[in-house]
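User: Could you check the structure of this?
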Amino acid sequence: MTKKHIILLMLLSMPLLLASCLKDQEDTFSESASERSKKYIANAERVLTSSSEGWLLQYYPDREQSYGGYVYTLKFADGKVVVRSEIADTPADSVVSLYTVNNENGPVISFDTYNSLMHHFSTPTGSSGAGGYEAYDGDFIFIIMNISDDENTITLKGGRSGNMMYMTRLTTSGEEYLDSINNIAFEIKWPKYVAVVGEDTVNVSYDKGRTFSFTYKENGEEKTVEASGISTLAGINFYEPVTVLGREIKGLAYTGNPDTFPATGAEDILFKGYTESVNKMFAEGLWSTSFSNLGAFGQDYWQYFADRLLPWFQQYYPGILSIFDFGNFDGSFGAVYLITDEDFLGFNGFDYELIGTDKIKMSHNSNLDDNTGYALFSNVGIMPALLAPFGCDDQGNSVERTFLITVDNDRFPETVTLTDRTTRGNTIVLHKNDIYDPLNN
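Assistant: Sure, the predicted structure tokens are below.
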């Protein structure tokens, strides 16, 4: 056969090859993209409604997971979803609303109508800060990334936050699961935990069992790594593992002993609970007080502020004194006060010295920048009126005051009482939770 014959045969066979390739493509894509999307959505809807007890959702608001994770349970049926969450008052509380599974540049679950639990982290309030006009960067639309082969796990991505979240099929009712979760979370009884790793020490502090801070020294340098966690029946799982002294920690395991928690993924690292001295707990916390929580000495000053100074101040900043806090504010120690409506935030710094385990010496300092309201408050006498019980005179000059500190609970104090060692009638009771409208409460 000549070279010319070979080329001729190849040319004659090309239509047959092309037809074969096209036939394969037609077999592979026999359905249109919209048809495939409809089938996927229908399957997702079938899986969602197939769980008789519903689903557990590990929910993380905020794209940095800075608020930690929250447990939700969801039960889908007939276009409605029954939502329960650990943020509700009790596990029995539920809110029913509508949902859809549809295609928005990909399959999504959308919680269409307002649900006070499901939309809690995505509903703005109009104020600034966490939960304010940007809410908590929470999600109510979730992209369906994957449904496991056994249909027991659904991987989601927050449409706003971009956080990866997981729904797993429940085998008990949502109410029972949340009740168990609350019991486990209650077992984290110590304010701080410490672990010894070889010759090194790792300290762990946490905020409400959701955000964790690991502090340790490595090669003589102090390091801190943070983790965002969520409660499970096995303890605390972290959104992402953290590396401490070369070891990867995925969470803290609950073994039935509330005094110790092994590190998940590095079980030989055992964290043991301990309590700081009461004066250190006070200095590291932020506490709220009000008129009724002051002794006679402080009430005289605050009454003068309410009668004489606040009306003058309101000419320029309408609203009430909404909060008066004292303690550690973003790494600085001192007094924080907020005037509502105009959101006037004032801060006055204090120096302090811890004495023993239950005393603190405090005095006002003038290490303030131009944004703290120092000049305005000083000129009208507002600053000394509010701060005199803590450590200044009626002119705003620094006065050292030494207080005895007592607490209502050695591990998790809700109230702290400061008793001035030298000034009669100068007691200050401070609370962990904010007290609003402190002049009238």
